Amino acid sequence: MAEHAGLARAAALHRDGRLADAVAAYRALLADDPENAGIWHNMGVALAGTGDAEAALAAFDRALALRPDYLHARVNRGGALQSLGRHAAAAAAYAAALERDPGLYEVRLREGLMRLAAGDRRGAMAAFRKTRAVRRDPAAMGGDHPSFTRSSRLKLAHDAAQLRLLADAGREGADFAALAALYERAVAELPAGAGSAPLPEELAGTHNRALHTAEADEIPGGALDRSLDGAEIETRYRERQPGIAVVDRLLSRPALAALRRHLLESTIWHDGEHIPGFLAAYLEDGLASPLLLQIADELRAALPAILAPHPLYQAWAFKCLTGSQGIDIHADSGAVSVNFWLTPDAANLEPDAGGLTVHRAPPPESWKIADYKRDKERIRALLKASDAGALTIPYAANRAVLFRSDLFHESGRVRFRPGYANHRINITLLFGERR
């Protein structure tokens, strides 16, 4: 009974965030029960929370020595190695966990990121292909998952236009002409302005599936434009406090063309719920390509003072379907964000707009990332009280903006020409995980 009471007390301390006290309580329990793998694991989690990754790793190793099939200990062991910057070892630890449960796509994502950080782009790409296979499989995600059961008129109209593009281009795979007609009929039958609704039954087998991928392979000789001067960019980033730089001609012409084709033709735009009027694609759900991973690697090499300490942590792309609103003010949960635009300038009806505004006033250290989405009034009040100002960068194809990820930023109204190929597309590469 006393043992159960001691464990309950340690768990309560852990839940309350009193991590040092929790570690002490776990150690006291282990003095009487040194073969308890669960307590070793829980102590490792608490130690990781205190920032002592080395001690956490030792605790997870002890838990696994006692119970080699302890899945959570294997995953958390990977996290400790990741915190220590031991990227290849972290990837191997995550892979060992995935041998026991291949469906853990978030762990597979971490494996891919750690392989990329270790310089293994091919291994990273293999991991990201597996995450996509899981994400696009109703058997793995659940047949009732909203991604497969609900959609909107805006999303279905986008998909119809994309399928029609694939059909007109003669792309091999599915019967894209028949699918385009099916989606076009479904759109015509939905009321204008309809929000998220149950998916029409006739689309159930194809909606949000990986129907087509336009391969974007690595570019021999480099994906970044040869004019890119890393030292100059780093100087501008340092001088424009608290850390902002604008880069024109980011990608070489072959890289830009290949990446555009990948984003126009690949059926990767699965998320229509994140931001009204926008579709999103993510690294683990089809956005990853050998070319995109090459770009991230080359940026880290070209900008060592800014990015070398920060491996790629996540990447996403947003496609604007309507010009009724931009992306509201927010911050990213990384160290450095690299945002760049892909749609040709000829599509932009307002050349001086459609870009990004980055506010120079950083948030107080006490603010947490979780507050950014739900506390807009507080953010606006902070910025209004500050005299730091903001930098507004107009849209331009192949232009990139580098900035500290915790800086609040937003996009204004977007007015691009109608037509599937004219939707405004931006990619964000997020380097480094904010602790």
How does this model look, in words?
The chain has helices spanning 2-15, 19-32, 37-50, 53-66, 71-83, 87-100, 105-117, 121-135, 138-141, 146-149, 153-168, 176-189, 230-239, 253-265, 290-302, 304-307, 371-374, 376-385; strands spanning 150-151, 197-198, 244-247, 278-282, 312-320, 334-341, 356-359, 390-393, 400-404, 409-410, 424-433. The chain is an alpha+beta fold and 435 residues long. The strands form three sheets. Strands 3-9-6-11-5-4 form a six-stranded antiparallel β-sheet. Helix 3 runs antiparallel to helix 4 (53-66) and helix 5 (71-83) packs antiparallel against helix 6. The chain starts with a helix and ends with a strand.
Q: Structural class of the secondary elements?
A: alpha+beta
Order of strands, widest sheet: 3-9-6-11-5-4
* Distance linking N and C termini: 38 Å
> Nearest-angstrom radius of gyration?
24 Å
Mean pLDDT: 93
Q: What is the global morphology? A: globular
Number of helices: 18
Order of helices and strands: HHHHHHHHHHEHHEHEHEHHEEEHHEEEE
